Amino acid sequence: MHRTHTCGELTIKDLGVEVTLSGWVAKSRDLGGMTFIDLRDRYGITQLVFNMDDNEQLCAEGRKLGREFVIKITGKVIERSSKNLKIPTGEIEIKVSKLEILNAAKTVPFLIEDETDGGDDLRMKYRYLDLRRAIVRKNMELRHKMAHETRNYLSNHKFIEVETPVLIKSTPEGARDFVVPSRMNPGEFYALPQSPQTFKQLLMVSGFDRYFQIVKCFRDEDLRADRQPEFTQIDCEMSFVEQEDILNMFEGLFKHLFKSIKGIDIAEVPRMTYADAMKYYGSDKPDIRFDMKFVELNDIVKGKDFKVFDDAELVVGICAKGCAPYTRKQVDELTDFVKKPQIGATGLVYCRYNEDGTIKSSVDKFYLEEELQKWVNAFGAEKGDLILILAGKTDKTRKALNELRLEMGNRLGFRNKDTFAPLWVLDFPLLEFDEESGRWHAMHHPFTSPKPEDIALLETDPGAVRANAYDMVLNGTEIGGGSIRIHNKELQSLMFKHLGFSTEEAHKQFGFLMDAFEFGAPPHGGIAFGFDRLCSLFAGLDTIRDVIAFPKNNSGRDVMIDSPSTIALEQLDELKIKTTV
Amino acid sequence: MHRTHTCGELTIKDLGVEVTLSGWVAKSRDLGGMTFIDLRDRYGITQLVFNMDDNEQLCAEGRKLGREFVIKITGKVIERSSKNLKIPTGEIEIKVSKLEILNAAKTVPFLIEDETDGGDDLRMKYRYLDLRRAIVRKNMELRHKMAHETRNYLSNHKFIEVETPVLIKSTPEGARDFVVPSRMNPGEFYALPQSPQTFKQLLMVSGFDRYFQIVKCFRDEDLRADRQPEFTQIDCEMSFVEQEDILNMFEGLFKHLFKSIKGIDIAEVPRMTYADAMKYYGSDKPDIRFDMKFVELNDIVKGKDFKVFDDAELVVGICAKGCAPYTRKQVDELTDFVKKPQIGATGLVYCRYNEDGTIKSSVDKFYLEEELQKWVNAFGAEKGDLILILAGKTDKTRKALNELRLEMGNRLGFRNKDTFAPLWVLDFPLLEFDEESGRWHAMHHPFTSPKPEDIALLETDPGAVRANAYDMVLNGTEIGGGSIRIHNKELQSLMFKHLGFSTEEAHKQFGFLMDAFEFGAPPHGGIAFGFDRLCSLFAGLDTIRDVIAFPKNNSGRDVMIDSPSTIALEQLDELKIKTTV
């Protein structure tokens, strides 16, 4: 037997018990005639002690153990003289009477500790050692719990998990599909799914009523923005539902996850329209951990000969609580920040509402203090606050102010990773105009239903048509989204017409789903959550890579196994393909 | 709102309640001035009633509803005059006051009923309609429950589910790998995993201690034998364990599944060595729902001038209880059966132990009744039994007798799908000789550990070396298998030597796993279950296709979505590949 206990469970209650433990040598130190070893496994660390006076040979063997050696020991649980109350096993140690080396270890390339000396590249190459660090392993444990509790909640709500195929069909627009040559069908290819969208809708046609799947999806695209070529979704679909049913069901999932994983009671998730999100936060995924809403100033700033404001489509600002004392340098930093090319503002106007009641702005030459008082009123600013204003084209200015707002949130410590502020964003536009093709595109996908009251606008003002589409946002990150689908044939045809598809094109691209819809499709809708992202937010991490056991790098490479790689010519021949590099 | 209740929940307790239901029109019949409709959803069937006298227009609309129309109705729960006590909702019906057609349906290509008129091909083409049949959907519900209970059990036993990558690396021996060209790394390919074997072993090196995953695996091979190019495994690995720990843990999983899914208490799973399985059942996966063990007769049949037996390496038989009255024709059928080319016996000797105490055999000319009495004694046969004997080369004869035994099991009704007889088969040979390459091959894989007491035999009698390898067998089907792995470098080198690998070859093929083993690998072992097969056995089905929502056919094609398919030239160009068909 390799162990009677794990390294995480022995406490003062076990004094005197003879135990066998197995694990890794985490640390070792000699102190006078004694040698102390931290023995580590997944469950914790237990201190071992060897004593020269008791057993010289054994102690000598103990001294020779290297870091990360795998050993098995037998010994008695005794009370420690110097206790470590930070860990559950910290009051005891094991007086070793028997030692067996199960496996030796070469010197590891970096420290197996929470604070390691290994750089990113090295840790990825030796990911199996990186995963040995408690801080990394805990992320995987969290991920496991998240998946398990998601399944519990959904199963308890009558959802069935159905595995949809991984080897599917490439669609004409599947530019980002990974494809897989078929040996049995030479010249033909499968594709890996970017999502199980079609299959989950088919399952609704099948009457499955409530479907979910925690499922790998694949996208062959640029990976700059913390993306992975393979990623995991919580994919869900329900029949005979309206938007409200979906929002309630998945708000419930969310509350369950917060409660069961983090012990946090989440209040009702607030809801915001897409239009309001853009107007008040300049983003379709507002971080509402803090307020600092946009205030539009067109009505009160125009016509005072300040050309920048007079020419602007939108003048809009935020109020930074308590920042009036910002130094010139600090304000300049903010100006530099908004002028960065990726943010693109041309300048920043500020207005201090000083503690002494005076109001000073960077545009004092155009605005009298009584006019500035109107600004202060518009923001509901208090003494000590700093107002920051941008002006220009509406979309661009909102986007820039969103960045500035987030930056101020960071500076003011409002974006704490232990604070969680979920939000539903509703009523997304159904269509967006694609400048390149000069056509309207479905913002989600062509089966997303428009709001009934907006259908008439399809003819007159397509951009104003709102969809029954919703996103779940957490701390400024989109973590899920979905829609109520069109199940009605006439409406679907109308949609295809407005998307510029002929019946033939529509059928070529969505053929079997459209066929299926002819045989009695129920009203249905669904949602999909980015599981990697959700886990990283729960874990308070910045990148999804940290919640993926074996992630790929920005070039889509797994540097540990050195993949992708060339394959043998015989293999290519058998598949009836050739590379043309 | 689309419904207040599902079609499976209203009973006599709900009399008088006004309800709204949605679902599919399963059946419709007019009876005098009344129209009755079976409304179906996933949860059941509720009868609707329309009455000409009450509301002529509504009833007329009801009469026009076609099969599989999706409708929403409102009405009152009333007591049925003619009750159907076979279903929970059979005592009530809904007197419809409001009807809305949510979606019409074309005529479906086959009946959506348990007994359908649709052939296999048609049902696969319209799989989404096939899945609408309760009998098919129930298989998916079972599969969901099996996965969920598996996860519950393993999570409760400290296993962590870790997602391993789907885009991995093709190995030099990955002849059956599916490969995936990488757009970002032109000329290079990922491979889809045939199993996560390497990754789960790496996770043990990482100290994960107990890993599992319900995971899709992929194999590009001939699909004749009820296989699928993508299939699902319950993949597990544990550290600091011996074989006994693994057997106990997964016997526990098995018991939990039987109890929670089928309400069956499974007794301790019996164990059998591979050697005994071959000797007594002629198979490494004996069906032990019935006894009928092989009895070897060499000692008592030889030397009586019956050349067939005298020349045979092995004379071996089974005793079919109560079959002595078999007619000549029935015995001839059995003879024809064993002579089929795929079974390959040259003939069948029988011996009847008649009810009147006489013994008659097909070889009476060589054996006196007192000699035949010895046969009877060897089998422990009783009056009325029929003994069936084959002779020839040991392996071939055992294999043929295994087939005959299973055939007799079928004829005697011993192979009931509702009876479950699991079995551990232990002590598999470590190596098997490959005639083609003239080399010994690892029967499982090269990391499988030999029994310590057999290691010396590696030099002298490699075929006799037993492995710490085990299979779980259920009703004559292998449903899982695994082994204790080698974690010791010297032993691993010895193994590679005996498998004819140079150090370089071994490193090329298993490089990063061997590297990983140098940094402190714990003793570990694991098992993997074929989840599709397991589900099909639980469901009492003959093929794994029936427990897969969207299976592929024998040519690896999904006929519903028509995949695989050709892809656009531009797509091939971007991937820097060409087809050579």
UniProtKB/TrEMBL annotation, chains A, B:
Record InterPro entries: Aa-tRNA-synt_II (IPR004364), aa-tRNA-synth_II (IPR006195), aa-tRNA-synth_II/BPL/LPL (IPR045864), Asp-tRNA-ligase_1 (IPR004524), Asp-tRNA-ligase_1_N (IPR047089), Asp/Asn-tRNA-synth_IIb (IPR002312), AspRS_core (IPR047090), GAD-like_sf (IPR004115)
Top-level taxon in the UniProt lineage: Bacteria
Residues that, per the record, bind L-aspartate: E173, R219, H444, R485
GO process terms (BP): aspartyl-tRNA aminoacylation
EC number: 6.1.1.12
Catalytic activity: tRNA(Asp) + L-aspartate + ATP = L-aspartyl-tRNA(Asp) + AMP + diphosphate
Localization: Cytoplasm
Residue span(s) of domain Aminoacyl-transfer RNA synthetases class-II family profile: 140-551
EC class of the enzyme, as a word: ligase
Presence of keyword Protein biosynthesis: yes
Stretches for region Aspartate: 197-200
Subunit description: Homodimer.
HAMAP family: Asp_tRNA_synth_type1
Reported function: Catalyzes the attachment of L-aspartate to tRNA(Asp) in a two-step reaction: L-aspartate is first activated by ATP to form Asp-AMP and then transferred to the acceptor end of tRNA(Asp).
Name of this chain's protein: Aspartate--tRNA ligase
Organism (species): Solitalea longa
Lineage: Bacteria, Pseudomonadati, Bacteroidota, Sphingobacteriia, Sphingobacteriales
Gene coding for it: aspS
